[in-house]
Amino acid sequence: MKGVLSSLTAFTVGAMLAVSAQAATEEPTSSAWQWLELLDKGKYANSYAEGSAIFRARISERSWESKVQIFRDAVGTVVWRDVEEVSSVADPPLLPKGQYAVVHYKSRFSDKKVYQEAVTLVLENGLWRVATYDIK
Question: Among residues 5, 24, 42, 124, which is most buried (max CB within 10 A)?
């Protein structure tokens, strides 16, 4: 009985850790996806407003909207986008101290080119909000 209880406890702890790890990647991935949908729908002002304080401090709304519009006009609409990797990062270089997650995507736009998108999110007031967005 003791061996069964020990195995059950190990299984329960392992399952709890797996659920915790899954939640740690699902929440930022979901937040990043919702934010990217704003870009995909041309709602650039909304994407700016939904960004973190860090995001808004790094670029003005007018500049953000202009840069995104120019890029999206050049590449067209998203054909597909797949998550490649999600990683947690504490205190990354060039950003204020905090808890961050980076969601990496491989994306294809209607210009038929494949791009690498990286959405860095910061945990801000209990919510994952976009801190940076890079596309190559």
Answer: 124
Question: Hey, how many other C-beta atoms are within 10 angstroms of the C-beta on 29?
Answer: 18
Q: What's the start-to-end Cα distance of the chain, in Å?
A: 57
DSSP conformational letter for 116: E
Domains located in the chain, CATH noted: 2-135 (3.10.450.100)
The more confidently predicted of residues 76 and 12 is 76
* Entry pTM: 0.80
Task: Sort 122 into a burial class: Cβ within 10 Å, 0-12 / 13-18 / 19+.
Answer: buried
Within 8 A by CB and 6+ apart from 10, the residues are none
**Cα–Cα distance, 136 to 133 (Å, whole number):** 10
Would you call 108 helix, strand, or coil by DSSP?
strand
With H, G, I as helix, E, B as strand and everything else as coil, classify residue 29. helix
Which residue intervals of the chain are DSSP H helices?
2-40, 44-50, 53-58, 61-75
Each residue's pLDDT tens digit, 69-100: 999 999 999 999 999 999 999 988 899 999 99
Q: How many residues does the chain have?
A: 136
Which residue, 53, 44, 21, is CA-closest to 129? Answer: 53
